[in-house]
Design goal:
It is built from 10 helices and 17 strands. The protein is α/β, with parallel strands linked by helices and 354 residues long.
Length: 354
Amino acid sequence: MRRVFLVVASGELGWSVMGTGTIAAEHMVTAIRAIGQVPLWVVSRRRQDARHFAGDLGIPQATTDLRSVWKDPSVRFAYVSASRRRRQHYICAAAAAGRHILCDGPIAEDSRTAAGLVHVCREAEVRLVVNQPFRASTIHQTMKRLIGEGEVGTVQSTLIIRGGPYQPAPTRRNLCQDGDRRIHLDASTDDIDLARFLTGMEPIEAVALTRSREEPPDHLAYAIRMSDGSALQVHESFRTADIESLVLVAGDRGVLAANGTLNGRGAATLQRRLNGRNELIPVRDRDLPLVTIEGFASAENGGPSWLASGEDSVAALRTAEAVAMSARKGRPMGIQLQAFPGHGLTGRAAENSR
């Protein structure tokens, strides 16, 4: 059967959506169109899933065959929204085809695999950008700017709190893609990445507490010593009653506190406390998928500094692995800093020798 490609208008850039598992993909398709670019293909292991997703969202092509996608000269970018275990397959395929990649985070199930994917993309000279919605938040970007400008003085502590009953990610199929066994992984990597983004510091050592060392951690409290000596304290739970999220950065001159930025619902606020007084900072948050797609599309010209890279995902995964290991073993775990050539530092979990 002869395949007909959709010819996009001059100046428009085409995308392939790799994976159909989450509602996030639907939001990103809308964001792609909002900036004048075109979702052209949907790829899935299951032909029926690809066809249903493409039909629902008005995407012209659906396939299980990646070779068909790469033959289409209009496809410039790949958005990977598959399960964690499938992201490696799609990232490697897109890199081999010379397509720039936006992938949901974390980019892999473990830090070793993630580091290998960073190497593959670097060798192929393609961009690997990680979809980290917390970085796209205008409130968090404002916090980072104020911290960098010295509004709170020298950072002493960062506190991240969120929790609530476990709610499986919405999917188009009645399937659990990654299982409940590692439900903490997305939460931990997101929170660790946010702390690194806000402070610019790297994790050095982690100690964690959980209800039972025999169970996969779904109720965690942990502390991380950062490279500047400050402390990161995190509470993540899928067992508690619903908690309004809090991101607090405390310095020796003042405090910044963001409420409701991590739960994806309702209006969020940013408050500054200086000289014993609280001040509400007016910040109008934007649509996070749209901000992410705009940032990715502009990355060809340097791109905004807030975008998460593959190296950032490796650092967050290695730190999350140290947290999980500390919870299992009941003792602190060191995080060995390791540099990627030409890039920033990342952490590698290792047992503390003390």
